[in-house]
Amino acid sequence: MHIDMNAFFASVEQQSNPALRGKPVAVVGSQQRTIILAASYEARPFGIKTGMALHEARQRCPHLQMVRANNRLYTNVSQQMIRLFQDYTPQVEVFSVDEAFLDVTGSLGLYGSPTRIAYLIKTRLKAHLGLTCSVGIAPNKLLAKLASDMQKPDGLTLIDETEVPAILEELPVGELCGIGRKTVEKLKRLGITTCGSLGRAPLPLLKGHFGVVGEQLLLMGRGVDRRPVVSLDQEAEVKTVSHSMTLRQDVSEREALARFVLQLSEMVGRRARRYGVSGRTVTLVLRYADFTTFSRQQQQGEAIFRSDQIYKAVMNILDRLLLSQPIRLLGVRLSTLERREQQMPLLPEERRKEALAASLDLVNDRYGEFAVMPGNLLQLKGKGSHVISPAWRPEGIRNVGVQ
């Protein structure tokens, strides 16, 4: 089954603040360039939706209650949800902070049916957290995700295996999770607009236009998905660690860019140390004011993990670039990862730096990100971007790409 919390951020805010209940609520970020991150169901009849600019939202709904996002609250509630799900099956895959897949096959002998498990979960979520969810039950993850979208809010949809062909026949291909807008456009040019037509498409045609992904698209059109539910203790090792941020205003000055690079390098380094990995490839991602996005990378002589090492490598890349426009977005990525050996450095200065990094990590783990930071980041405190990544996990973000 796929469990999708309804208007999660906004619903959590309404539950924690009774004065917001029954009113149109929008959760927003803390930056000047922020957008609507989530809208309550009371706000949606006015056309308020995720991604909308604030000025447009105010025009559509002058009495809209805008609430600044509280990520610590949302992640805390999400952890409670996950523990509740694990009461019914250990096979819980966290899909995002407000979504999860559950494989309840092994629990049917105890509870009788998947619909009974779904009703028990929905009842407990409402009683203990005051939240509603939509649940989709199906033979696989692809169809369960589709089913959970069919009845919102507070819905429950069961797709039986015998119903799959009829459901998919006229379903637009874009309704399937994993088929994005560009793929929809390419399929449309091939005369494929529904899942039924996708499932009947010649495999050579799909592979000719989409490569190896063509076979996967064919299976999706037929409602076939062989991916297992991957619980938290089964997740694959992290392959990259990255952070990015959209700047409050376009920046051209090297000194200002360097401070943001330092902030991102601190975040990437801290995650790398948490996972016990180091990397040999450092990448700088840049987006101009006109939204042109590009990246440059540099191979390191040895695998690195300290924030100061990452910062130095990224600045080497930045210093070689001739920027033609102000920068709107910055990103730093560490890849070609390997397990870090717990070996004491030979040089005293290197030992001191590693000990300092470990001590700072302990403090920040206890008191929060950037409780202790380099002095030249003080003027940036609170100016980063703190939207919860889709890769969020209760024990830390995997394959991080935060904006």
Q: Structural class per helix/strand content?
A: alpha+beta
CA-based shape: globular
- CA(first)-CA(last) distance: 29 Å
Mean pLDDT: 86
Radius of gyration: 23 Å
Count, helices: 14
Provide the spatial order of strands within the biggest beta sheet: 5-6-1-7-8
CATH homologous superfamily label of the largest domain:
DNA polymerase, Y-family, little finger domain
Quote the beta fraction.
15-25%
CATH domain class of the largest domain: Alpha Beta
Q: What string, H for helix and E for strand, traces the elements in order?
A: EHEEHEHEEHHEHEHHHHHEHEEHEHE
Number of domains: 3
Q: Could you walk me through the main structural features you see in this protein, from its secondary elements to its overall organization?
A:
The strands form three sheets. A five-stranded mixed beta sheet has the order 5-6-1-7-8. Mean pLDDT is 86; it is low at 380-386 and 397-403. It is built from 14 helices and 13 strands. It has three domains: 2-71, MutS, DNA mismatch repair protein, domain I; 163-221, Orthogonal Bundle (DNA polymerase, domain 1), CATH 1.10.150.20; 237-402, Dna Ligase, domain 1 (2-Layer Sandwich), CATH 3.30.1490. The radius of gyration is 23 Å and the shape is globular. By secondary structure, it is of the alpha+beta class. It has helices at 8-16, 54-60, 71-86, 108-111, 114-129, 141-148, 164-169, 181-189, 195-200, 203-210, 213-221, 254-275, 307-319, 348-367, and strands at 2-5, 25-28, 36-39, 65-68, 92-96, 99-102, 133-137, 156-158, 241-251, 277-288, 293-304, 327-339, 401-402.
Gist of the model:
This protein is α+β, with helices and mostly antiparallel strands and 403 residues long.
